[in-house]
Amino acid sequence: MNPGEKSCAWCEGNPLYQSYHDEEWGIPLYDEQKLFEFLILETFQSGLSWITILKKRENFRQAFDHFDYNKISAYDQTKVVQLLSDEGIVRNRLKILATIINAKCFIELRKTEKSFSNFIWNYVNHKPIQNNFEHPNDIPSKTKLAEQISKDLKKKGFKFIGPKVIYAYMQATGMVNDHLVTCFRHKELL
Predict the structure, then answer these.
(1) CATH classification at residue 112
(2) Is 121 a catalytic residue?
(3) CA-CA-CA-CA torsion for 97, 101, 106, 112, nearest 10 degrees?
(4) Which ranges of the chain have pLDDT less than 70?
(5) Of 8, 90, 107, 154, most Cβ neighbours within 10 A?
């Protein structure tokens, strides 16, 4: 960010948030591994603030084998117990179990669809939805499209992926550009 430029208000005043906003949030993401990482982080964020997850992100990477979905899909009860004792992550049994299930579903979806990236981006015709919100209160927490994606993923067995989680995922991975029109990143991502 250059002097005089504005950011989205939610990230101002926190260097970790600012860095995430400036360098990651809303940038179209197609890499399978990173898409899986964000899916897992968004499921853990459910009911919590995103800053809580960002602060623990490196711990999550270590605890979950750098989000290697092949390794995670093979986690057993011993690994679940180990994760539940890891103070560096969010220790929620249901979310940990959902992560294992989601890794298995992710692998299965890649077999049938050839690519998770292609599958998820197909919902937006492989092009980010360009929103033009002027105020933070204008940004929805979910949309009809997020509801549809959530429903479709649930049919495929995914867990903890309600419409709010999916919309946050769409924002994070650049499927939608929800930077405010006054934010310097909005124009850069058009």
Answers:
(1) 1.10.340.30
(2) no
(3) 180
(4) 1, 3-4
(5) 8
